[in-house]
Amino acid sequence: MIRKRTLRHFIVFVSVSGPICIVLFHQTSTRSFLKDSCMCNCAMDSEGRSWFSQRYKPSANVTLNRKNGLLDFHTYWWWKSLQNESVVANYTQVVEVMFSLFPDKDHYTDSSPSRCRTCAVVGNSGNLVGSRYGALIDSQDFVIRMNEGPTKGFERDVGSKTTHRVIYPESAVDMGVTTHLVLLPFKILDLQWLISIFTTKHIDLTYMYVKPSIIADRNMVMILHPAFIKYVYDSWLQGHGEYPSTGFISVIFALHVCDEVSVFGFGPTKDGVWDHYFEDFKSDPNEGPHDGDFEGKVISQLHQKHRIMLYKGW
Ligand code: C5P
Q1: Residue 278: partners with Cβ closer than 8 Å, 6 or more residues away
Q2: pLDDT at 114
Q3: Which of 48, 107, 122, 166 would staple 305 via disulfide (CB 3.0–4.6 Å)?
């Protein structure tokens, strides 16, 4: 009689606790899967991890807002020396006006082991011609383009989606109202120009003619932090060149706001020519303020160390 009752208790215990144990086991193993192996970009060996962590600063302010807008002395003077301005406005006042117009927030601080935001960074290299990368580029969550890099007429090779376009006044183009205008400011006048294109439209000259107005939505504006540009220069380029190129800054921007980064349209064609996919244009990557060779080397290292996927177009 006692044995029968014990057996019945045992059966009740197993039938109640069994499913609970299975649920708990499943939750624990799912959690440890997420912790030990994230879904994006995770296959770095310890040498790669140390190389990356020497350069990557997770706490870097990527975009500017009122709260983080103050620049330390070194950053301010470094940034101000990039492009000489004859008349220099008051930085703090300009920042104040800017964020009465544009979203004043920390963008993309939602990083977590379970987030898997995929991003394509699309440079303007001629190595995209004939690549047929369009569908792959468009399948990413974010598609970050830069300067005038067009899509119309080039969809098969470069795609048609643009979620972000990184520009500065001298390289600005219309971007419509569904694309984030990401300003890469090299001087205070660039911030004033950003205000002007949405208000008075009176600034049409920096060191050259610039568009006094472009088609864009002011609610889609974000501004790269001057300290972010300095961090990219110091930490990633170790002082090579005078300052980083738009393309290189866009790659590091993507590393900070995305979980998986695919890079297209960087570097020369297979014949060694540095040109644009959309126009007849030849350039020397080391001419001007950028060290194209060093930037290319870092981008290749990021690929070798599995932090980005670099698509060379051939
Ligand atoms: O020429 P542009 O500055 O508009 O190109 C945008 C970015 O694309 C550059 O800053 C550079 O990083 C990249 N690029 C490249 N190779 C090319 C052309 C552009 O890596 N042939």
Answers
A1: 124, 148, 149, 150, 153, 154
A2: 87
A3: 48
DSSP conformation class of 216? B
User: Residue 168: CB within 6 Å of ligand 1?
Assistant: no
Q: Which of 111, 38, 102, 36 is nearest to 65 (CA)?
A: 102
Contacts of 64 by beta carbon, 8 Å cutoff, 6+ apart: 95, 98, 223, 224, 225, 226
Which residue in 225, 231, 290, 311 is the catalytic one?
290
Stated length of the chain: 314
pLDDT tens-digit readout, 238-259 = 999 999 999 999 999 999 999 9
- Ligand 1, closest atom to CA 247? 12
In the residue annotation, 290 being an active-site residue is answered as yes
Q: Indicate if ligand 1 lies below 6 Å from the C-beta of 267.
A: yes
CATH of domain 44-311: 3.90.1480.20
Of 122, 245, 297, best ligand 1 pocket probe by most atoms within 8 Å of the beta carbon = 245
At 41, the pLDDT band (50, 70, 90 cuts) reads low
Give me ligand 1 centre to Cα 247, in Å.
6
